[in-house]
Specification:
The chain is an alpha/beta fold. It is built from 16 helices and 15 strands. It has a 4-stranded parallel beta sheet, sandwiched between helices. Helix 4 packs across helix 7 and helix 12 packs parallel to helix 14. It binds one RNA strand through helix 1, helix 6, helix 8, strand 12 and helix 11.
RNA sequence: GGUGGGAUGGCCGAGUGGCUAGGCUCAGCUCUGCAAAAGCUGCUACAGCGGUUCGAAUCCGCUUUCCACCUCCA
C-alpha cells in the first residue's frame, strides 16, 4: 500500500512514485511564515495542505521528520540593495524590539495552527538561531568559487552555477530567456549578473538585526536560512521540500542554487507546491488588502463575510479542493462546506453508535463487497497525490450507507463483522487522523449536557406517547431556538447541535 | 512583453479517451402525528471553432477569456 503513493514533482513536472531515500523514513521540509505580521488565510491554506500530507505519510506508517521554519530575520522589503529588513521595519514602526515582534507573531501563528488542528512539526527552527550555520554555508560557497564579495555583501554567482546545472529547471525556464525577458531593475550595481542574489548582506549601522561575520557586520540573505536549516536537520539531500507556488521562481530556485553551490546536490528529491487562495478570482495577499485574518473568519467580522465560519468548516472547505488548484473564497462556498462538514461528522457519530450482531458471514455479499471497495478507494485516492476532494467524495458515499444502517433503512447485518470493524477503523482514522477533522459540537462538561438532553427528550417522548403534540412541539421548537436539532428515528430520538 | 496554469451543470469542485465524482441548492417519493433528520429518485455540464479517432469534456491546433509568476509574498 505504501509503495503506491504518487506525488506530483514540480522539478520533473509529472507524478512520480514516491520512493524515500531511507526505507520507512521521510524527511519533509516546508517553508514557514515570516513572523512580522499576522498570518492570513492564504498562508494558512499552505500549512493546512502540508498538515494533511504529513498526517497521511504518518498514517501510511512512515517515520517522518517534519521541519517547518520560522523566518525571523532577513527577507528584504525592497528589491534593491538599499532594501530594509521586514522585521526591523515593523519594529521601528511599532516602537518595539525585533524580538518582541517575532515573539508576538510566532505565538499568534501557533495559536492559529492549533485552532485549525494542524499538527506541530517535529522541528520549528528559526533563522536567527542558525546564523552560524548560514555563515558557514556562505563560506563554503565562496570556497567552491560560486560566490563573490562586493562591499561586504556576498553574492551567489548564478551565471557560473548555470554551467554546472540548469538553474531555471524548477520554474521551467532557461536562464538565457530570463535575461531577455525580464524587466530591468534599478540599484543592482554591485552584482555581476542580474540574477545573482545575496547570501550575506552588509548591514548599515542603524540596522536593528545584525551579526558579526568574516565580512563585517551583516545579516543573512533572502534564501539562505532554508538551505542551512534543511541541511542541518534533514541532510544535504532529503525527500520532500514544500511551500506555496509563489516560492517556485525565486526562493526555491535559489535554494537549489545554494545547495548546488555548496554541496553539489539538489536538496530535495520531490518538490511539492500548493496553490493560492483567491478572493473573487484574485490572489489573497497582504498588499492587495483582500486578506482575511483567521480570527476575522471565526468571528465573521470582515466586511466581505456574511457570517462566522468555524475552523473546522474552513479546514473542510480547503480539503474539498486539491492542494494544487486555486480555491476561491466565497460565502456561498463556505456555507455549502459548513453543511457538508456537519453531514460528514454526523455520519461518523452515527457510525460509532452502531452495534453489529457479530455474525462473521455477510448477509449480502454485494453490499459487503461494495463497502470494502469504498474503503480501499479511500487509500487509492489519497495515494494519488493526496487527492483529498476525491477521498472526501468516497467518505460521503460511505456516509450514505452509514446513515441508512443507522436509520434502519438498510440492514447492518448485510456486512460481516470483519467488514464492519474495518469500516469503523478506516472511516474514523481518515476523518480524525488523516483529514484532521475534529467534532466541534463535542463539549467537555462531564456528560452534563448529554444527561440534560436525555431528560428533556424523555419528557417529550412521554408527551408524544400521550399524543400531546402541543407539549412535544413546544419542546422541539424551543430546542430549535437553541440551535439544537431533534431527530425522531425508529429507535427513538437523538439530537445534534446545528 | 516572456513563462506557466485555468475555463466543467443553479453554486462550489473532482476526473478520465468509451463506464456514477462528491458537496450545497431545487423538485418528487419513502419514513414521520406533523416536521426535522435520513434514504431513494430527478434536474445532467464540460468556453468557442476546427482536427485526430470507431468514439473526446478528456489528445492536437487556433480563437476568446481569466489568473499566477517575472518585485517581498504561502
Amino acid at each position: 500500500m505504501t509503495n503506491s503513493l504518487k506525488i506530483y514533482n514540480t522539478l520533473t513536472r509529472q507524478k512520480e512514485t514516491f520512493v524515500p531515500i531511507q526505507e520507512g523514513r521521510v524527511g519533509l521540509y516546508v517553508c514557514g511564515p515570516t513572523v512580522y505580521n499576522d498570518v492570513h488565510m492564504g498562508n494558512c491554506r499552505t500549512f493546512l495542505s502540508f498538515d494533511v500530507i504529513y498526517r497521511y505519510l504518518i498514517h501510511l506508517g512512515y517515520k517522518v521528520r517534519y521541519v517547518r521554519n520560522i523566518t525571523d530575520a532577513g527577507h528584504l522589503t525592497d528589491d534593491g540593495d538599499e532594501g530594509e529588513d521586514k522585521i526591523s521595519k515593523k519594529a521601528r514602526i511599532d516602537q518595539l524590539e525585533p524580538m518582541e515582534i517575532v515573539h508576538k507573531y510566532t505565538m499568534g501563528f501557533r495559536d492559529v495552527m492549533k485552532q485549525f488542528n494542524v499538527l506541530t512539526p517535529n522541528i520549528e527552527p528559526t533563522a536567527t538561531g542558525h546564523i552560524v550555520e548560514q555563515i558557514e554555508m556562505t563560506k563554503q560557497i565562496l570556497q567552491n568559487g560560486y560566490a563573490y564579495e562586493a562591499n561586504g555583501t556576498i553574492y551567489c554567482d548564478v551565471d557560473k552555477l548555470n554551467q554546472l546545472y540548469d538553474y531555471g529547471q524548477l520554474s521551467g525556464r532557461k536562464l538565457d530567456d530570463l535575461y531577455t525577458n525580464t524587466r530591468e531593475l534599478d540599484g543592482q550595481s554591485d552584482k555581476r549578473g542580474a540574477f545573482d542574489f545575496a547570501l550575506w548582506k552588509k548591514a548599515n549601522p542603524e540596522h536593528l538585526q545584525q551579526w558579526q561575520s568574516p565580512w563585517g557586520m551583516g545579516f543573512p540573505g533572502w534564501h539562505l536560512e532554508c538551505s542551512a536549516m534543511s541541511r542541518k536537520y534533514l541532510g544535504e539531500r532529503f525527500d520532500i521540500h514544500g511551500g506555496g507556488m509563489d516560492l517556485v521562481p525565486i526562493h526555491h530556485t535559489n535554494e537549489i542554487a545554494q545547495s548546488m553551490a555548496c554541496c553539489k546536490t539538489t536538496p530535495a528529491n520531490y518538490w511539492m507546491h500548493t496553490n493560492m487562495l483567491t478572493v473573487n478570482g484574485t490572489k489573497m495577499s497582504k498588499s492587495l488588502n483582500n486578506a482575511f485574518l483567521p480570527h476575522e473568519l471565526f468571528a465573521g467580522s470582515h466586511p466581505l463575510l456574511e457570517q462566522a465560519y468555524s475552523p473546522m468548516t474552513v479546514r473542510f472547505f480547503f480539503l474539498q479542493a486539491h492542494y494544487s488548484s486555486t480555491i476561491d473564497f466565497s460565502n456561498e462556498a463556505l456555507q455549502a462546506a459548513e453543511k457538508g462538514y456537519k453531514r460528514l461528522m454526523n455520519a461518523h457519530k452515527s457510525l460509532l453508535q452502531l452495534t453489529h450482531s457479530g455474525n462473521q458471514t455477510a448477509g449480502n455479499n454485494t453490499e459487503d463487497k461494495a463497502v470494502l471497495q469504498l474503503l480501499d478507494e479511500c487509500y487509492e485516492r489519497m495515494n494519488d497525490d493526496f487527492n483529498t476532494p476525491q477521498t472526501i467524495a468516497v467518505l460521503f458515499e460511505l456516509s450514505s450507507k452509514i446513515n441508512a444502517y443507522h436509520n434502519k433503512q438498510a440492514n447492518l447485518n448485510d456486512l460481516s463483522k470483519d467488514t464492519f470493524d474495518r469500516l469503523i477503523t478506516v472511516f474514523t482514522s481518515f476523518i480524525t487522523n488523516v483529514l484532521g477533522l475534529l467534532d466541534e459540537t463535542t463539549t467537555a462538561d462531564n456528560g452534563i449536557t448529554e444527561g440534560l438532553m436525555q431528560l428533556v427528550l424523555q419528557m417529550r417522548t412521554d408527551a408524544r406517547n400521550r399524543k400531546d403534540w402541543l407539549t412535544s412541539d413546544i419542546i422541539r421548537d424551543r430546542l430549535n431556538d437553541l440551535k439544537i436539532t431533534v431527530k425522531d428515528g425508529k429507535d427513538g430520538t437523538t439530537w445534534g447541535v446545528d
